[in-house]
Write a structure and sequence with these properties.
It is globular and about 30 Å long. α2 packs across α7. By secondary structure, it is mainly alpha-helical. Helix content is 58%, strand content 0%.
């Protein structure tokens, strides 16, 4: 009886893998506001600034990127966003007159944007 009760509580919790609406909304919002200008809403490197960086903005829907995103969840997103020693993204924005207000990234933000990107990539949009 005790095992049945525990299983009935634990199994539904483990099966809840889809993000809540708020998480999906936050991830999409962050991506659209802070990434789509280069990567495009389709994540394929089709944004208005895509070809204005050197190297050009990558297509995030490739199988290679999808594998990296799956193998290293959160690392890819956080390393780009928080890139401490690179200036490619800020320089590209600055050179093209784009002023993004600073954003205090939370762990939840990084998880949300990762989840959003993974969802778009897996749907093949």
């Amino acid at each position: 009886m005790k095992k049945t009760i525990i299983a009935s509580l634990v199994i539904p919790a483990l099966m809840q893998t889809s993000p809540s609406f708020a998480d999906t909304f936050n991830g999409k919002n962050l991506f659209v506001q802070r990434c789509a200008m280069c990567h495009g809403v389709d994540l394929k490197g089709t944004g208005p600034l895509a070809n204005k960086s050197n190297p050009p903005t990558p297509d995030l829907t490739t199988s290679a990127f999808k594998k990296r995103l799956n193998d290293y969840p959160g690392v890819i997103v956080s390393s780009i966003i928080l890139r401490p020693n690179g200036d490619l993204i800020p320089r590209t924005l600055r050179e093209n007159g784009v002023k993004l207000p600073p954003h205090a990234w939370s762990i939840q933000d990084l998880r949300d944007i990762h989840q959003y990107m993974s969802g778009v990539i897996s749907k093949g949009r």
